[in-house]
Write a structure and sequence with these properties.
By secondary structure, the chain is an alpha/beta fold. It starts with 14 loop residues before the first helix and ends with a helix. The mean pLDDT is about 90. α3 links the parallel β3 and β4. It has one domain: 3-Layer(aba) Sandwich (Trna Endonuclease, Chain: A, domain 1).
């Protein structure tokens, strides 16, 4: 239940509580991407929490929920990708974010004669996962949660 404050009575009954439920459910879905990767043929690489691989796709994925605006963090990500490409030259290296910092949904970065794919949001999920099936499952879950069936 949402915390009651002096302003709670300004909103229609139940709307603050429903808004809290919506935000909580959205955050749960946002955080489900690693689990979806595991269910769809990806494994964690070493002890890395943000690096996944899929042997059948010959793909190494550096995944983070949100792209950092920090130049240091961006530099660290690119350094890690260069290190991975040197170790695994035949694999595609993909940098993927659920939430990007601009409107670019996909592109390539070329560093030291190495190409890295960058994908964000829906285009990333469509590339990696059975997107339409997952969205339908989550839509059904949301409808059931709010009694919209």
């Amino acid at each position: 239940m949402a915390e009651e404050t002096v302003f709670s009575n300004l909103f229609p009954a139940g709307i603050v509580e429903n808004a809290s439920k919506i935000v909580g459910l959205k955050n749960k879905l946002d955080k489900s991407i690693p689990m979806l990767l595991f269910k769809n043929g990806f494994s964690k690489m070493y002890n890395e929490t943000k690096i996944f691989f899929n042997d059948s796709k010959r793909l190494i994925l550096f995944y983070d929920r949100r792209e950092s605006k920090s130049k240091k963090k961006r530099s660290d990500v690119l350094s890690k990708c260069i290190e991975l490409k040197n170790k695994y030259p035949n694999e595609t290296i993909l940098i993927g974010y659920l939430i990007g910092t601009d409107t670019v949904n996909q592109g390539d970065v070329i560093l030291q004669d190495m190409t890295f794919k960058i994908m964000v949001g829906e285009s990333l999920l469509r590339f990696l996962l059975p997107y339409d099936e997952i969205i339908q499952k989550y839509k059904t879950e949301i409808d059931e949660y709010f009694g919209l069936n």
